[in-house]
C-alpha cells in the first residue's frame, strides 16, 4: 500500500470516529431529555397522567389552634410529620397558667374553710340559744318566787306584821323579775335570729365553694391547653409557628 493510500485510510478512520462520537453524544443528550420529560410527565409521556386545575384530595383536614395565649417554648414536630393522637406538637409557656391554678386552689381552700367555719358558727349559735333559753326559764322561776313573796308581804303588811318599806321592796323585786323575763325573751330572740343568719349565710358560702371549684377547673383546663397535641392520627401540613413565637387563642398553627 502506498503512503498516499495509507494517509487516506487514516483520514477516513478519524472521520468515522468523529461521526460516531457526535452520534453518541446526540444519543446521550436525547436520552437525557427523554428522562427529564418522563420524570415531569411532559409530552410525549402525558398519556397516562391526568391533570386538572380544580382537583382536590379527598380526606379530612383539621386545623390545630391554641386555646390560650402565650409564647411557644417547645416545638416537637416538623412540617409534614406523621403524628399519632395525643402526641405533643407544641408547648406554650405555662408559668402564668400554673400560678393561676395555684391561686384558684388557694381560693378554694379559703372558701372551704369559711364554709367549715359556718358550721362551727351554727353550733355556737345553737349553744347560745340553749343558754338564753335556760336564762329565760330561770327568770320566770325567779318571777314566780317574787310574786309569791309579794303576796305574803302584802298579807303581813295588812295585819301590821311588816312595814310599808318591806312591802315596797317586795314590789320592786317583783317588778324586776318581770323585767328580767322580758330581757331574757329579747336576748333569746336575738340569738335565734343570729342562728338564722348563720343558716342563710351557709347557702352563700356553699355557692362560693362551687364558684371556686369551677374557677379551679377552668384554670386547670387552661394549663392543660398549653400543651397542643394531635387530635387524631394523621400527617401535619406546614407548621405556621416557630419557637419563641407568640400565639393567640383560635389562631391556626397547622392544618392536618
* Whole-number total of structural domains: 3
Low-confidence residue ranges: none
| DSSP strand tally | 8
CATH topology of the largest domain: Helix Hairpins
The percent of residues in helical segments reads 55-70%
Number of helical stretches of at least 4 residues: 3
Portion in beta strands: 5-15%
- How are helices and strands ordered from N to C? HEEEEHHEEEE
Shape: rod-shaped
Q: Assembly type of the shown chains?
A: single chain
Largest sheet: 4 strands, antiparallel
Q: Which homologous superfamily in CATH is the superfamily of the largest domain?
A: Helix Hairpins
Whole-number mean pLDDT = 81
* CATH architectural arrangement of the largest domain: Orthogonal Bundle
Transmembrane segments: 20-40
Keywords: Membrane, Transmembrane, Transmembrane helix
Family: Belongs to the membrane fusion protein (MFP) (TC 8.A.1) family.
InterPro entries: MdtA-like_BSH, MFP
List the helices and strands and how they pair.
Blueprint: H1 3-39, E1 63-64, E2 70-75, E3 82-83, E4 88-92, H2 95-158, H3 164-224, E5 227-229, E6 234-235, E7 246-247, E8 254-255
Antiparallel strand pairs: 1-8, 2-4, 2-7, 3-6, 4-5
Please give a structural write-up:
This protein has 3 domains: 1-55; 62-93 and 226-256, Beta Barrel (OB fold (Dihydrolipoamide Acetyltransferase, E2P)), CATH 2.40.50.100; 96-221, Helix Hairpins, CATH 1.10.287.620. It is built from 3 helices and 8 strands; from the N terminus they run αββββααββββ. The protein has helices spanning 3-39, 95-158, 164-224; strands spanning 63-64, 70-75, 82-83, 88-92, 227-229, 234-235, 246-247, 254-255. A 4-stranded antiparallel β-sheet has the order 5-4-2-7, with no helix packed on it. Strands 1-8 form a two-stranded antiparallel ribbon. It has a two-stranded antiparallel ribbon with strand order 3-6. Helix 2 (95-158) packs antiparallel against helix 3 (164-224). It starts with a helix and ends with a strand.
Amino acid at each position: 500500500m502506498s503512503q498516499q493510500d495509507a494517509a487516506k485510510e487514516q483520514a477516513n478512520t478519524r472521520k468515522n470516529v468523529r461521526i460516531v462520537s457526535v452520534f453518541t453524544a446526540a444519543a446521550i443528550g436525547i436520552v437525557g431529555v427523554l428522562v427529564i420529560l418522563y420524570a415531569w410527565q411532559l409530552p410525549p409521556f402525558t398519556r397516562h397522567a391526568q391533570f386538572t386545575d380544580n382537583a382536590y384530595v379527598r380526606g379530612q383536614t383539621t386545623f390545630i389552634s391554641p386555646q390560650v395565649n402565650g409564647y411557644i417554648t417547645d416545638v416537637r414536630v416538623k412540617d409534614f410529620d406523621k403524628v399519632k393522637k395525643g402526641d405533643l406538637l407544641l408547648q406554650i409557656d405555662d408559668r402564668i397558667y400554673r400560678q393561676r391554678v395555684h391561686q384558684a386552689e388557694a381560693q378554694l381552700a379559703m372558701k372551704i374553710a369559711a364554709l367549715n367555719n359556718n358550721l362551727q358558727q351554727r353550733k355556737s349559735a345553737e349553744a347560745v340559744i340553749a343558754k338564753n333559753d335556760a336564762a329565760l326559764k330561770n327568770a320566770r322561776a325567779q318571777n314566780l318566787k317574787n310574786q309569791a313573796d309579794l303576796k305574803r308581804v302584802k298579807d303581813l303588811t295588812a295585819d301590821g306584821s311588816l312595814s310599808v318599806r318591806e312591802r315596797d321592796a317586795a314590789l320592786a323585786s317583783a317588778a324586776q323579775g318581770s323585767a328580767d323575763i322580758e330581757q331574757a325573751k329579747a336576748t333569746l330572740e336575738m340569738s335565734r335570729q343570729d342562728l338564722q343568719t348563720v343558716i342563710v349565710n351557709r347557702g352563700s358560702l356553699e355557692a362560693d365553694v362551687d364558684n371556686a371549684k369551677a374557677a379551679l377547673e377552668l384554670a386547670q383546663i387552661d394549663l392543660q391547653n398549653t400543651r397542643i397535641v394531635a387530635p387524631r392520627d394523621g400527617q401535619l401540613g406546614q407548621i405556621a409557628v416557630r419557637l419563641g413565637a407568640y400565639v393567640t387563642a383560635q389562631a391556626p398553627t397547622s392544618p392536618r
